[in-house]
Amino acid sequence: MELQAMYIQVLALILLIIGLATVLSRRNVFFILMGIELALNAVNLSIIGFSKTFAAAASVTGQIIPLFTIAVAAAEACVGLAVIILIVRNQHSVDIDNYSNMRG
Amino acid sequence: MLALIYFIIFALIAVGSALCVFLSKHPLYGAISLIVTMLSLAGIYGLLGSPFVGVMQVMVYAGAIMMLLAFVIMVLNGANDNRTPRFDKVSLFVFPALVVMALLIAFAFFRAQLGFDSMAVKGTVAISAGTLFDTQNFGYYLLVEAVGLLLLSAMATAVILARKEIGSKPENENSEEVH
């Protein structure tokens, strides 16, 4: 009974589904952002798990790519939080159902 | 065998705290649960033989991004109107769709024959950073520069978005501009 490559993919799939469920069913805007982060983490885990199924050079490439994913996630969180600050300042609400009137 | 035991422990912590993110009422509790998920994922990266990615996960994700998110939650008081129900009738359609999607992906996984390659390179700090910052060959050096430009433009975008009107006065003279 050893650690299989399939277990990592199953864990990544579970985390991805929980993240997507958080994005699609919660109404608080912070939970939506956290669900996106959770889904991104699951994708990183999947990339690492797949990179271990390749031989020498390809496995190094598969372990470099998540670093760029993390950097892009940092930029995404930066801009996303700025948008949230702007919207909450205008609407005085963190509930996304109040954001449905896109005026001004 | 020992690797499997450690993996199961980390996976249980990760899934449990991800469910805490999904079910918690206050956004700050969700943020702390998400930090626990990221730390246990960093442990799994180290277990798989990618300690450099694990360290970056702890430093950038758990350290920088989640600190920023928790800070904004505390500044904006993210739970001040949380009266709306967490799960409404849209969720009745969301959850079966997600379950069907998970089953489809799991079917694709179990059709594929995955297995660890024994020739896979352990992504130590020397190998990962040496490949990433290699200026002799092409490597990933230009991509690192491009990521730096991306982060700079994201920071400029955040500053422009989150300030009030450009060139506007504060509402009253006594109010203190904190941003």
Helical residues, percent of chain A: over 70%
Order of helices and strands of chain B: HHHHHH
From the alpha carbons, calculate the radius of gyration of chain A and give it in angstroms.
18 Å
- Helix/strand/pairing category of chain B: mainly alpha
What is the N-to-C succession of helices and strands of chain A?
Answer: HHH
Distance between the termini of chain B: 53 Å
List keywords for this structure.
heterodimer, A: 104 residues, mainly alpha, Helix Hairpins, 3 helices, B: 179 residues, Four Helix Bundle (Hemerythrin (Met), subunit A), 6 helices, 68% helix
What this model shows, in words?
The complex is a heterodimer of chains A (104) and B (179). By secondary structure, chain A is mostly helical. Chain A has 3 helices and no strands. Chain B is mainly alpha-helical and 179 residues long. Among the domains of chain B are: 78 residues, Four Helix Bundle (Hemerythrin (Met), subunit A) (Up-down Bundle); 41 residues. Chain B is built from 6 helices and no strands. The longest helix of chain B has 26 residues. Chain B starts with a helix and ends in a 17-residue tail after the last helix. The relative contact order of chain B is 0.07. The mean pLDDT of chain B is 84. Classes of the chains: A mainly alpha (104), B mainly alpha (179).
